Amino acid sequence: MFYKFRTNFRIKIKEIFKKIWKNAGIVLILWIIMLIINYLLGNMKTEPIPITTYEPHISIMNEDKEVPKDLQEPINKIFNEYVNYCNNQEYEEAYNMLSEGCKKNLYPTQEDFEKYTKVVFDQKKIYNIQNYSVNDNVYIYNLRILNDILATGLTDEKQLVYYEEKVAIESIDDKLYLSIGGFIKEKKVEALFEDEYMKLTVDKVLVMDDREIYTMTVSNKSDYVLNIADTSKPQEIFIKMGSETRNVQELPMNGVIVFPDQKRTYELTFTKWYDETEKTESIIFDTVYIIKEYKEDTEQMRVEKENAIDSYSFELKLSM
Questions:
Q1: End of a domain among 152, 181, 210?
Q2: Is residue 1 part of a domain?
Q3: How far apart are CA 178 and CA 29, in angstroms?
Q4: Which pLDDT score, from 0 to 100, does residue 10 have?
Q5: Model confidence over 2-56: pLDDT tens digits?
Q6: What are the DSSP calls for the chain, one per residue?
Q7: What is this structure's pTM?
Q8: Is there a domain that residue 285 lies in?
């Protein structure tokens, strides 16, 4: 009986030691893993958090350009007044802050402006500004208009939607004016092409922050149909900027077709950013067809152009 007790006791002791060594092995492995992790963390290079400052009057397109110091505070003031007027629905005061060119071309009446304002300022708004570019004493800003968190009580970042547009500030007779909606200025243009078939003129261009819109008038002097562009080719009317050309953004559905004794006016829009250094030199008309009849059918029009009275291309030099 004593022998049996001794044997059982030895077995129990062995089982206890096995459990101890097993647990000790797990602890040892965990300890080694922790040493490796500490080593790796100790040798990791942490990227320093960049320290940024808000510089609303330094151009984001060219950090070397800055709005003149004496204009920075007046510009802050005009933005603040404009947003306050819109928030308080004082539309006449806000409308009077716009440049004449902006009014004429984008918002001819105060009612037009109010429609725009009621959409953007549908509730109390706050704003921030950042200069986008400085060019020819015109200061273009990104105006970001956001919901007023304190007024609305919004806490979810997804609800913090904003509206953003380009706004140009220009000093006219020592007074600052706003041009909103991406409008920069209207410029007079002197450009004329005339021959026995037509008289074509371009007399103005609307300069927007991302495009130029030319007003072209064509008078047909002949008894034939002028097919200046009919959307049958990818490049029919385009501008020349140094060594680069850019196609017209969109043509009328039926193209640029002028019938005998008819006078028509078109707006030709081309992509061009205001801060680009290359100037628009000319508008190129790839092929003008002088045809007897206008045909709506594509195949019939192709035949008509093959038998055209005359066909030629020309380059219209722009003087601005």
A1: 181
A2: no
A3: 70
A4: 46
A5: 344 444 544 554 455 455 445 555 656 665 666 666 555 555 444 554 445 678 9
A6: -HHHHHHHHHHHHHHHHHHHHHHHHHHHHHHHHHHHHHHHHHHPPPPPPP-----TTB-SS-TT-B--HHHHHHHHHHHHHHHHHHHTT-HHHHHTTB-HHHHHHT-SSHHHHHHHHHHHTSS-EEEEEEEEEEETTEEEEEEEEEE-HHHH----GGG--EEEEEEEEEEETTEEEEE-TTEEEEEEEEEEEE-SSEEEEEEEEEEESSEEEEEEEEEE-SSSEEEEE-S-SS-SEEEEETTEEEE-S---TT-EEE-TT-EEEEEEEEE--TT-SSPP-EEEEEEEEEESS--SSHHHHHHHHHT-SEEEEEEEE-B-
A7: 0.78
A8: yes
d(CA 271, CA 306): 32
Q: How many residues does the chain have?
A: 320
State the burial class of residue 268 (Cβ atoms within 10 Å of its Cβ: 0-12, 13-18, 19+): buried
pLDDT above 90 coverage of the chain, percent: 67
CATH number at residue 271: 2.60.40.1640
Query: Which domain range does residue 165 map to?
Result: 69-181
pLDDT tens digits, residue range 155-186? 554 556 788 999 999 888 889 999 999 999 99
Contact between 318 and 283 under an 8 Å Cβ cutoff? The reply is yes
What does the pLDDT read at residue 65? 85
